[in-house]
Protein backbone atom coordinates (compact mmCIF):
# COMPACT_ATOMS: atom_id res chain seq x y z
CA UNK A 1 0.00 0.00 0.00
CA UNK A 2 1.35 3.39 -1.08
CA UNK A 3 0.34 6.67 0.59
CA UNK A 4 0.24 10.09 -1.05
CA UNK A 5 -0.16 13.60 0.35
CA UNK A 6 -3.41 15.51 -0.07
CA UNK A 7 -1.34 18.44 -1.34
CA UNK A 8 0.50 16.42 -3.97
CA UNK A 9 4.08 17.49 -3.39
CA UNK A 10 5.43 15.20 -0.65
CA UNK A 11 7.10 11.88 -1.43
CA UNK A 12 4.90 8.78 -1.44
CA UNK A 13 5.49 6.48 1.54
CA UNK A 14 4.61 2.98 2.68
CA UNK A 15 2.64 2.27 5.87
CA UNK A 16 5.70 2.24 8.11
CA UNK A 17 6.78 5.56 6.66
CA UNK A 18 3.45 7.33 7.16
CA UNK A 19 3.11 5.97 10.69
CA UNK A 20 6.41 7.53 11.72
CA UNK A 21 5.97 10.69 9.65
CA UNK A 22 2.48 11.80 10.66
CA UNK A 23 2.12 15.04 8.69
CA UNK A 24 3.42 15.14 5.11
CA UNK A 25 6.40 17.39 4.36
CA UNK A 26 4.27 19.63 2.11
CA UNK A 27 1.84 20.31 4.96
CA UNK A 28 -0.73 17.85 3.66
CA UNK A 29 -2.14 14.66 5.15
CA UNK A 30 -1.37 11.17 3.92
CA UNK A 31 -4.09 9.00 2.39
CA UNK A 32 -3.92 5.66 0.58
CA UNK A 33 -3.24 6.00 -3.13
CA UNK A 34 -6.42 3.96 -3.69
CA UNK A 35 -9.10 2.72 -1.30
CA UNK A 36 -8.95 -1.04 -0.70
CA UNK A 37 -12.36 -2.64 -1.12
CA UNK A 38 -13.97 -5.73 0.39
CA UNK A 39 -16.64 -7.72 -1.40
CA UNK A 40 -20.02 -8.57 0.11
CA UNK A 41 -18.71 -12.07 0.85
CA UNK A 42 -15.50 -10.70 2.40
CA UNK A 43 -17.52 -8.63 4.87
CA UNK A 44 -19.96 -11.45 5.60
CA UNK A 45 -17.00 -13.67 6.51
CA UNK A 46 -15.98 -11.21 9.23
CA UNK A 47 -19.16 -11.72 11.26
CA UNK A 48 -18.50 -13.10 14.73
CA UNK A 49 -14.75 -12.50 14.75
CA UNK A 50 -13.21 -11.40 18.05
CA UNK A 51 -12.33 -7.71 17.92
CA UNK A 52 -8.56 -8.21 17.60
CA UNK A 53 -9.05 -10.59 14.65
CA UNK A 54 -11.53 -8.25 12.99
CA UNK A 55 -9.03 -5.41 13.41
CA UNK A 56 -6.30 -7.41 11.71
CA UNK A 57 -8.63 -8.32 8.84
CA UNK A 58 -9.83 -4.74 8.26
CA UNK A 59 -6.42 -3.10 8.60
CA UNK A 60 -4.23 -5.57 6.69
CA UNK A 61 -4.86 -3.97 3.26
CA UNK A 62 -3.63 -0.63 4.63
CA UNK A 63 -0.59 -2.16 6.30
CA UNK A 64 0.53 -4.07 3.21
CA UNK A 65 4.01 -5.54 3.47
CA UNK A 66 5.00 -3.46 6.48
CA UNK A 67 3.63 -6.12 8.85
CA UNK A 68 2.86 -9.77 8.20
CA UNK A 69 -0.70 -10.80 9.11
CA UNK A 70 0.38 -12.84 12.13
CA UNK A 71 2.48 -9.96 13.45
CA UNK A 72 -0.35 -7.45 13.02
CA UNK A 73 -2.67 -9.86 14.83
CA UNK A 74 -0.18 -10.10 17.70
CA UNK A 75 -0.18 -6.30 17.99
CA UNK A 76 -3.97 -5.97 17.86
CA UNK A 77 -4.32 -8.72 20.48
CA UNK A 78 -1.92 -6.86 22.78
CA UNK A 79 -3.57 -3.48 22.16
CA UNK A 80 -7.12 -4.59 22.87
CA UNK A 81 -6.22 -6.88 25.75
CA UNK A 82 -6.11 -3.79 27.99
CA UNK A 83 -9.80 -2.96 27.49
CA UNK A 84 -12.22 -3.57 30.35
CA UNK A 85 -14.99 -5.04 28.15
CA UNK A 86 -14.49 -8.31 26.28
CA UNK A 87 -16.24 -6.90 23.21
CA UNK A 88 -13.84 -3.90 23.25
CA UNK A 89 -16.50 -1.62 21.64
CA UNK A 90 -19.89 -3.00 22.77
CA UNK A 91 -23.27 -1.90 21.42
CA UNK A 92 -26.11 -0.81 23.72
CA UNK A 93 -29.70 -0.58 22.47
CA UNK A 94 -31.67 2.55 23.39
CA UNK A 95 -34.94 1.91 21.55
CA UNK A 96 -36.16 0.23 18.38
CA UNK A 97 -33.95 2.42 16.16
CA UNK A 98 -31.26 4.08 18.30
CA UNK A 99 -28.07 2.40 19.51
CA UNK A 100 -24.94 3.49 21.36
CA UNK A 101 -21.49 2.23 20.39
CA UNK A 102 -19.46 2.44 23.61
CA UNK A 103 -15.90 3.40 22.72
CA UNK A 104 -14.70 4.26 26.24
CA UNK A 105 -13.63 0.93 27.73
CA UNK A 106 -9.91 1.56 27.22
CA UNK A 107 -7.45 2.68 29.89
CA UNK A 108 -8.19 6.42 29.61
CA UNK A 109 -11.98 6.10 29.14
CA UNK A 110 -12.20 7.64 25.66
CA UNK A 111 -12.48 6.47 22.07
CA UNK A 112 -8.92 7.62 21.39
CA UNK A 113 -7.67 4.50 23.22
CA UNK A 114 -8.98 2.26 20.43
CA UNK A 115 -6.42 3.72 18.05
CA UNK A 116 -3.65 4.91 20.32
CA UNK A 117 -3.08 1.66 22.19
CA UNK A 118 -2.24 0.18 18.79
CA UNK A 119 -0.28 3.21 17.60
CA UNK A 120 2.06 3.02 20.59
CA UNK A 121 2.87 -0.58 19.69
CA UNK A 122 3.37 0.33 16.01
CA UNK A 123 5.83 3.06 16.98
CA UNK A 124 7.79 0.62 19.12
CA UNK A 125 7.80 -2.00 16.35
CA UNK A 126 9.01 0.32 13.61
CA UNK A 127 11.55 2.22 15.74
CA UNK A 128 13.18 -1.05 16.81
CA UNK A 129 13.72 -1.87 13.13
CA UNK A 130 15.34 1.48 12.45
CA UNK A 131 17.18 1.89 15.78
CA UNK A 132 15.89 5.47 15.77
CA UNK A 133 14.31 7.92 18.22
CA UNK A 134 10.92 9.57 17.87
CA UNK A 135 9.71 12.88 19.27
CA UNK A 136 5.91 12.95 19.38
CA UNK A 137 4.44 16.44 19.38
CA UNK A 138 0.68 16.70 19.69
CA UNK A 139 -2.18 19.01 20.57
CA UNK A 140 -5.24 17.88 22.44
CA UNK A 141 -8.68 19.29 23.08
CA UNK A 142 -9.05 16.76 25.87
CA UNK A 143 -8.87 13.04 25.18
CA UNK A 144 -6.10 12.52 22.62
CA UNK A 145 -3.45 13.67 25.07
CA UNK A 146 -4.22 11.22 27.84
CA UNK A 147 -4.69 8.31 25.44
CA UNK A 148 -1.42 9.05 23.64
CA UNK A 149 0.50 9.48 26.87
CA UNK A 150 -0.85 6.21 28.25
CA UNK A 151 0.14 4.45 25.03
CA UNK A 152 3.79 5.58 25.01
CA UNK A 153 4.68 6.40 28.64
CA UNK A 154 7.94 4.70 29.57
CA UNK A 155 8.55 3.31 26.09
CA UNK A 156 12.12 3.32 24.86
CA UNK A 157 13.07 5.58 21.94
CA UNK A 158 10.02 7.83 22.32
CA UNK A 159 9.53 11.28 23.88
CA UNK A 160 6.07 12.85 23.94
CA UNK A 161 5.21 16.54 24.20
CA UNK A 162 1.49 17.19 24.54
CA UNK A 163 -0.04 20.67 24.32
CA UNK A 164 -3.45 21.41 25.82
CA UNK A 165 -5.31 24.73 26.11
CA UNK A 166 -4.93 25.95 29.69
CA UNK A 167 -8.22 25.88 31.58
CA UNK A 168 -10.18 24.48 28.63
CA UNK A 169 -10.13 20.75 29.34
CA UNK A 170 -11.99 18.99 32.13
CA UNK A 171 -10.23 18.23 35.41
CA UNK A 172 -10.32 14.50 34.67
CA UNK A 173 -8.93 15.01 31.18
CA UNK A 174 -6.10 17.20 32.50
CA UNK A 175 -5.18 14.88 35.35
CA UNK A 176 -5.12 11.83 33.11
CA UNK A 177 -2.27 13.58 31.28
CA UNK A 178 -0.48 15.45 34.03
CA UNK A 179 -0.34 12.65 36.63
CA UNK A 180 1.72 10.41 34.31
CA UNK A 181 5.21 11.11 35.65
CA UNK A 182 7.26 8.98 33.25
CA UNK A 183 10.49 10.73 32.23
CA UNK A 184 9.59 10.65 28.52
CA UNK A 185 6.29 12.49 29.08
CA UNK A 186 6.09 16.31 28.88
CA UNK A 187 2.79 18.15 29.36
CA UNK A 188 2.43 21.75 28.22
CA UNK A 189 -0.54 23.98 29.06
CA UNK A 190 -0.61 26.88 26.61
CA UNK A 191 -2.45 30.15 26.92
CA UNK A 192 -4.94 29.97 24.05
CA UNK A 193 -7.34 27.61 22.34
CA UNK A 194 -6.97 24.11 20.93
CA UNK A 195 -6.75 25.63 17.45
CA UNK A 196 -3.78 27.71 18.64
CA UNK A 197 -2.09 24.57 19.97
CA UNK A 198 -2.80 22.62 16.80
CA UNK A 199 -1.40 25.43 14.65
CA UNK A 200 1.85 25.33 16.65
CA UNK A 201 2.16 21.59 16.16
CA UNK A 202 1.65 21.91 12.41
CA UNK A 203 4.19 24.71 12.28
CA UNK A 204 6.75 22.56 14.09
CA UNK A 205 6.30 19.80 11.50
CA UNK A 206 7.26 22.32 8.84
CA UNK A 207 10.15 23.90 10.76
CA UNK A 208 13.30 22.59 9.12
CA UNK A 209 15.47 23.59 12.08
CA UNK A 210 13.43 21.21 14.24
CA UNK A 211 12.80 18.36 11.81
CA UNK A 212 16.46 18.38 10.78
CA UNK A 213 17.50 17.35 14.32
CA UNK A 214 14.51 15.42 15.65
CA UNK A 215 12.29 12.66 14.33
CA UNK A 216 9.02 14.54 14.78
CA UNK A 217 5.85 12.40 14.69
CA UNK A 218 2.14 12.87 15.26
CA UNK A 219 -0.37 10.96 17.36
CA UNK A 220 -3.49 12.95 16.72
CA UNK A 221 -5.74 12.05 13.83
CA UNK A 222 -3.49 13.64 11.23
CA UNK A 223 -1.54 10.37 11.65
CA UNK A 224 -3.00 7.89 9.18
CA UNK A 225 -2.33 4.84 11.37
CA UNK A 226 -4.49 6.24 14.12
CA UNK A 227 -7.36 7.01 11.80
CA UNK A 228 -7.04 3.55 10.21
CA UNK A 229 -7.57 1.85 13.58
CA UNK A 230 -10.81 3.78 14.05
CA UNK A 231 -12.27 2.27 10.87
CA UNK A 232 -12.53 -1.09 12.63
CA UNK A 233 -15.32 -0.25 15.05
CA UNK A 234 -17.59 0.83 12.21
CA UNK A 235 -17.25 -2.69 10.84
CA UNK A 236 -17.75 -4.17 14.31
CA UNK A 237 -21.00 -2.31 14.91
CA UNK A 238 -22.39 -2.82 11.41
CA UNK A 239 -21.71 -6.55 11.46
CA UNK A 240 -23.55 -6.93 14.76
CA UNK A 241 -26.56 -5.12 13.32
CA UNK A 242 -26.84 -7.18 10.15
CA UNK A 243 -24.24 -5.96 7.66
CA UNK A 244 -23.53 -6.60 4.87
CA UNK A 245 -27.17 -7.56 4.24
CA UNK A 246 -28.40 -4.44 6.06
CA UNK A 247 -27.36 -0.78 5.84
CA UNK A 248 -26.41 1.16 8.98
CA UNK A 249 -26.32 4.90 9.78
CA UNK A 250 -23.88 6.46 12.23
CA UNK A 251 -24.04 9.72 14.17
CA UNK A 252 -20.62 11.00 15.21
CA UNK A 253 -19.73 13.82 17.63
CA UNK A 254 -17.25 15.74 15.57
CA UNK A 255 -14.44 18.17 16.26
CA UNK A 256 -11.33 17.41 14.22
CA UNK A 257 -13.24 15.22 11.69
CA UNK A 258 -11.02 12.17 12.21
CA UNK A 259 -13.63 9.88 13.77
CA UNK A 260 -16.27 10.53 11.14
CA UNK A 261 -13.72 10.32 8.34
CA UNK A 262 -12.93 6.81 9.57
CA UNK A 263 -16.60 6.03 8.87
CA UNK A 264 -16.19 7.51 5.40
CA UNK A 265 -13.22 5.21 4.84
CA UNK A 266 -15.27 2.20 5.97
CA UNK A 267 -17.88 3.09 3.37
CA UNK A 268 -15.23 3.38 0.65
CA UNK A 269 -14.09 -0.12 1.64
CA UNK A 270 -17.55 -1.55 0.94
CA UNK A 271 -19.26 -1.37 4.33
CA UNK A 272 -22.97 -0.62 3.67
CA UNK A 273 -23.19 2.79 5.38
CA UNK A 274 -26.50 4.50 4.68
CA UNK A 275 -25.46 7.81 6.20
CA UNK A 276 -22.84 9.50 8.34
CA UNK A 277 -24.32 12.27 10.49
CA UNK A 278 -21.73 14.89 11.42
CA UNK A 279 -22.82 16.24 14.82
CA UNK A 280 -21.34 19.54 15.99
CA UNK A 281 -21.88 21.85 18.93
CA UNK A 282 -22.11 25.64 18.52
CA UNK A 283 -18.58 25.59 17.10
CA UNK A 284 -20.25 24.55 13.88
CA UNK A 285 -17.77 25.10 11.06
CA UNK A 286 -18.32 21.55 9.80
CA UNK A 287 -22.11 21.88 9.86
CA UNK A 288 -21.85 25.09 7.84
CA UNK A 289 -19.37 23.50 5.43
CA UNK A 290 -21.56 20.49 4.70
CA UNK A 291 -24.90 22.32 4.71
CA UNK A 292 -23.86 25.51 2.92
CA UNK A 293 -20.38 24.93 1.48
CA UNK A 294 -19.00 27.58 3.86
CA UNK A 295 -15.83 26.37 5.61
CA UNK A 296 -15.04 29.60 7.46
CA UNK A 297 -13.44 29.66 10.90
CA UNK A 298 -14.87 31.85 13.61
CA UNK A 299 -13.95 32.36 17.25
CA UNK A 300 -13.95 29.28 19.43
CA UNK A 301 -16.79 29.28 21.97
CA UNK A 302 -15.98 27.24 25.12
CA UNK A 303 -18.72 24.70 25.90
CA UNK A 304 -19.43 21.71 28.13
CA UNK A 305 -18.17 19.52 25.25
CA UNK A 306 -14.57 20.81 25.08
CA UNK A 307 -13.26 18.16 22.68
CA UNK A 308 -15.53 19.71 20.05
CA UNK A 309 -14.54 23.31 20.71
CA UNK A 310 -12.66 23.52 17.44
CA UNK A 311 -12.89 25.85 14.43
CA UNK A 312 -10.22 24.25 12.22
CA UNK A 313 -10.86 20.55 11.60
CA UNK A 314 -7.63 19.08 10.28
CA UNK A 315 -9.06 15.88 8.85
CA UNK A 316 -11.61 17.73 6.73
CA UNK A 317 -8.74 18.18 4.30
CA UNK A 318 -8.80 14.44 3.59
CA UNK A 319 -12.47 14.60 2.64
CA UNK A 320 -11.96 17.70 0.48
CA UNK A 321 -9.14 15.92 -1.35
CA UNK A 322 -11.15 12.79 -2.04
CA UNK A 323 -14.31 14.73 -2.89
CA UNK A 324 -12.39 17.04 -5.22
CA UNK A 325 -11.19 14.26 -7.50
CA UNK A 326 -7.91 13.73 -5.63
CA UNK A 327 -6.43 16.84 -7.22
CA UNK A 328 -3.48 17.73 -4.98
CA UNK A 329 -2.79 21.07 -6.71
CA UNK A 330 -6.41 22.18 -6.30
CA UNK A 331 -6.45 21.16 -2.65
CA UNK A 332 -3.09 22.83 -1.92
CA UNK A 333 -4.44 26.06 -3.40
CA UNK A 334 -7.65 25.81 -1.36
CA UNK A 335 -5.77 25.16 1.87
CA UNK A 336 -3.28 27.98 1.23
CA UNK A 337 -6.20 30.39 0.84
CA UNK A 338 -7.87 28.99 3.95
CA UNK A 339 -4.70 29.34 6.00
CA UNK A 340 -4.36 32.94 4.84
CA UNK A 341 -8.00 34.03 5.22
CA UNK A 342 -9.61 31.38 7.48
CA UNK A 343 -12.32 31.02 4.83
CA UNK A 344 -12.91 28.46 2.09
CA UNK A 345 -15.82 27.73 -0.20
CA UNK A 346 -16.31 24.10 -1.20
CA UNK A 347 -16.55 23.49 -4.91
CA UNK A 348 -19.79 22.09 -6.31
CA UNK A 349 -18.02 18.78 -6.91
CA UNK A 350 -16.85 18.61 -3.29
CA UNK A 351 -20.32 19.43 -1.95
CA UNK A 352 -22.05 16.91 -4.22
CA UNK A 353 -19.61 14.12 -3.39
CA UNK A 354 -19.94 14.71 0.36
CA UNK A 355 -23.74 14.89 0.18
CA UNK A 356 -23.98 11.31 -1.07
CA UNK A 357 -22.98 10.06 2.37
CA UNK A 358 -22.72 12.90 4.89
CA UNK A 359 -25.30 15.14 6.52
CA UNK A 360 -24.83 17.37 9.53
CA UNK A 361 -26.58 18.80 12.56
CA UNK A 362 -25.82 21.43 15.20
CA UNK A 363 -26.68 21.18 18.89
CA UNK A 364 -26.65 24.06 21.33
CA UNK A 365 -26.42 23.63 25.10
CA UNK A 366 -30.17 23.13 25.53
CA UNK A 367 -30.31 20.40 22.87
CA UNK A 368 -27.30 18.66 24.41
CA UNK A 369 -28.86 18.63 27.89
CA UNK A 370 -32.20 17.45 26.48
CA UNK A 371 -30.44 14.48 24.86
CA UNK A 372 -28.70 13.60 28.13
CA UNK A 373 -32.01 13.71 29.96
CA UNK A 374 -33.78 11.61 27.32
CA UNK A 375 -31.10 8.94 27.48
CA UNK A 376 -31.29 8.84 31.28
CA UNK A 377 -35.06 9.13 31.74
CA UNK A 378 -36.15 6.82 28.92
CA UNK A 379 -33.22 4.43 28.57
CA UNK A 380 -31.41 4.46 31.91
CA UNK A 381 -28.20 5.53 30.17
CA UNK A 382 -25.83 8.17 31.49
CA UNK A 383 -23.97 9.80 28.61
CA UNK A 384 -21.32 12.49 28.35
CA UNK A 385 -21.90 15.84 26.58
CA UNK A 386 -20.15 14.86 23.33
CA UNK A 387 -22.19 11.68 22.99
CA UNK A 388 -25.32 13.68 23.76
CA UNK A 389 -24.68 16.03 20.85
CA UNK A 390 -24.45 13.07 18.49
CA UNK A 391 -27.54 11.46 20.01
CA UNK A 392 -29.47 14.69 19.45
CA UNK A 393 -28.39 14.63 15.80
CA UNK A 394 -29.35 10.96 15.48
CA UNK A 395 -32.83 11.52 16.88
CA UNK A 396 -33.64 14.45 14.59
CA UNK A 397 -32.25 12.82 11.43
CA UNK A 398 -34.75 12.84 8.62
CA UNK A 399 -35.18 10.69 5.55
CA UNK A 400 -33.63 7.49 6.82
CA UNK A 401 -35.34 4.25 5.76
CA UNK A 402 -37.38 2.71 8.57
CA UNK A 403 -35.25 -0.44 8.68
CA UNK A 404 -31.91 1.39 9.05
CA UNK A 405 -30.63 1.49 12.65
CA UNK A 406 -28.78 4.60 13.82
CA UNK A 407 -25.61 4.07 15.86
CA UNK A 408 -24.42 7.00 17.98
CA UNK A 409 -20.73 6.87 18.81
CA UNK A 410 -20.35 7.19 22.59
CA UNK A 411 -16.89 8.67 22.66
CA UNK A 412 -16.15 9.21 26.36
CA UNK A 413 -17.09 7.80 29.73
CA UNK A 414 -19.53 10.20 31.42
CA UNK A 415 -17.32 10.48 34.50
CA UNK A 416 -14.78 12.40 32.43
CA UNK A 417 -17.33 15.23 32.40
CA UNK A 418 -18.94 14.73 35.78
CA UNK A 419 -19.92 18.35 36.38
CA UNK A 420 -21.70 18.63 33.03
CA UNK A 421 -23.51 15.33 33.58
CA UNK A 422 -24.55 16.36 37.09
CA UNK A 423 -25.91 19.66 35.78
CA UNK A 424 -27.94 17.85 33.11
CA UNK A 425 -29.46 14.91 34.98
CA UNK A 426 -28.75 15.46 38.67
CA UNK A 427 -26.58 12.34 38.91
CA UNK A 428 -22.82 12.34 39.48
CA UNK A 429 -21.16 9.62 37.39
CA UNK A 430 -18.52 7.59 39.17
CA UNK A 431 -15.03 7.05 37.80
CA UNK A 432 -14.29 3.35 37.21
CA UNK A 433 -12.22 1.77 39.93
CA UNK A 434 -9.15 1.48 37.73
CA UNK A 435 -8.81 5.30 37.68
CA UNK A 436 -10.59 6.04 40.95
CA UNK A 437 -7.55 7.54 42.69
CA UNK A 438 -6.92 10.05 39.90
CA UNK A 439 -7.50 13.09 42.12
CA UNK A 440 -5.01 11.87 44.71
CA UNK A 441 -2.10 11.64 42.27
CA UNK A 442 0.65 14.22 41.87
CA UNK A 443 0.38 16.48 38.79
CA UNK A 444 3.25 17.75 36.66
CA UNK A 445 3.02 20.16 33.74
CA UNK A 446 4.46 23.44 32.49
CA UNK A 447 2.46 26.48 31.41
CA UNK A 448 3.71 28.41 28.39
CA UNK A 449 2.47 31.48 26.52
CA UNK A 450 0.65 30.95 23.24
CA UNK A 451 3.86 31.66 21.36
CA UNK A 452 5.44 29.28 18.87
CA UNK A 453 9.03 30.18 19.74
CA UNK A 454 8.46 29.43 23.42
CA UNK A 455 6.98 26.01 22.63
CA UNK A 456 9.66 25.18 20.05
CA UNK A 457 12.46 26.08 22.45
CA UNK A 458 10.85 24.03 25.23
CA UNK A 459 10.66 20.96 23.00
CA UNK A 460 14.13 21.22 21.49
CA UNK A 461 15.71 21.69 24.93
CA UNK A 462 14.24 18.41 26.19
CA UNK A 463 13.85 16.09 23.20
CA UNK A 464 16.33 13.43 22.15
CA UNK A 465 17.78 13.93 18.65
CA UNK A 466 17.14 11.20 16.11
CA UNK A 467 19.49 8.21 16.32
CA UNK A 468 20.23 9.45 19.83
Overview of the structural elements:
By secondary structure, this protein is an alpha/beta fold. It has a domain at 91-107 and 224-425: Rossmann fold. The protein contains 19 helices and 15 strands. The protein has helices at residues 15-21, 40-44, 51-63, 69-80, 112-130, 143-152, 171-178, 194-205, 208-211, 224-240, 258-268, 285-292, 316-323, 328-341, 348-355, 365-379, 385-396, 418-425, 452-462; strands spanning 3-5, 30-32, 91-93, 98-102, 134-139, 158-165, 185-190, 216-217, 248-253, 273-280, 294-296, 343-345, 358-362, 406-410, 446-448. The protein is globular, with a radius of gyration of 20 Å.
Q: State the total count of DSSP E strands.
A: 15
Radius of gyration of CA atoms, rounded to a whole number: 20 Å
Shape category: globular
Class from secondary-structure proportions: alpha/beta
CATH topology of the domain at 91-107 and 224-425: Rossmann fold
Largest sheet: 6 strands, mixed
Throw out a few tags for this protein.
5-stranded parallel beta sheet, Rossmann fold, alpha/beta, 6-stranded mixed beta sheet
Please sum up the structure shown.
This protein has 468 residues and is of the alpha/beta class. Helix content is 43%, strand content 15%. The strands form four sheets. Strands 3-4-14-9-10-13 form a six-stranded mixed beta sheet. It has a five-stranded parallel beta sheet with strand order 8-5-6-7-15, with helices on both faces. Strands 1-2 form a two-stranded antiparallel ribbon.
Amino acid sequence: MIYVSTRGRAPALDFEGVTLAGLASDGGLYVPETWPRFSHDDIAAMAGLPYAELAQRVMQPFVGDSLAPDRLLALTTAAYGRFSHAAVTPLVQLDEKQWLLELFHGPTLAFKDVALQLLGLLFEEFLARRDDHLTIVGATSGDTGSAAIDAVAGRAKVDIFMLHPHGRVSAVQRRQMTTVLAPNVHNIAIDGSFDDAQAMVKRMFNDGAVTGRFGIAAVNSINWARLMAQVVYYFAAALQLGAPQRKIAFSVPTGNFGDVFAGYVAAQMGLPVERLIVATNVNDILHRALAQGDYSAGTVTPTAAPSMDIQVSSNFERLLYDAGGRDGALLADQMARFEATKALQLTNAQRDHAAHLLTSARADADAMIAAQRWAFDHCGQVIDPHTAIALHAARIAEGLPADVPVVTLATAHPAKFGDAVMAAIGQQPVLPARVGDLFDREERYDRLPGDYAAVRDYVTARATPRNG
